[in-house]
Amino acid sequence: MGARRPKMAEIINLRRARKAKDRAQKEKTAQANRVLHGTPKHLRKLTEAGKNKAEQQLAGKRLEQDDEDK
């Protein structure tokens, strides 16, 4: 019977691995930018208006007035 040889390690091209890692990082950054800057203007304004309305309703329901409001 023949002697068993240990398995060899997988050979990788370091340049390709580095470039793949860079591409993945750039894609991650691009996805974050799409979310941040990809919202149409009318939807951003609609969301902002909803937040302002909610703040005003909450402020109107406060039991105590802040010193700034007096």
Describe what this molecule looks like in 3D.
The chain has 70 residues and is mostly helical. It has a domain at 14-61. Helices cover 63% and strands 0% of the residues. It has 2 helices and no strands. The termini are far apart.
Draw up the topology in text.
Blueprint: H1 14-37, H2 41-60
What's a quick, concise take on this entry?
With 70 residues, this protein is mainly alpha-helical. The protein is built from two helices and no strands. It has a domain of 48 residues.
Ranges where pLDDT stays below 50 over 5 or more residues in a row are: none
Counting DSSP H or I runs of 4 or more residues, the number of helices is: 2
Strand content: under 5%
The profile of the biggest β sheet is:
none
Radius of gyration: 29 Å
Mean pLDDT: 88
The succession of helices and strands, N to C, reads HH
Tell me the span between the first and last alpha carbons.
95 Å
Total DSSP E strands: 0
Q: Give me the secondary-structure category.
A: mainly alpha
- Percent helix range: 55-70%
The outline comes out as elongated
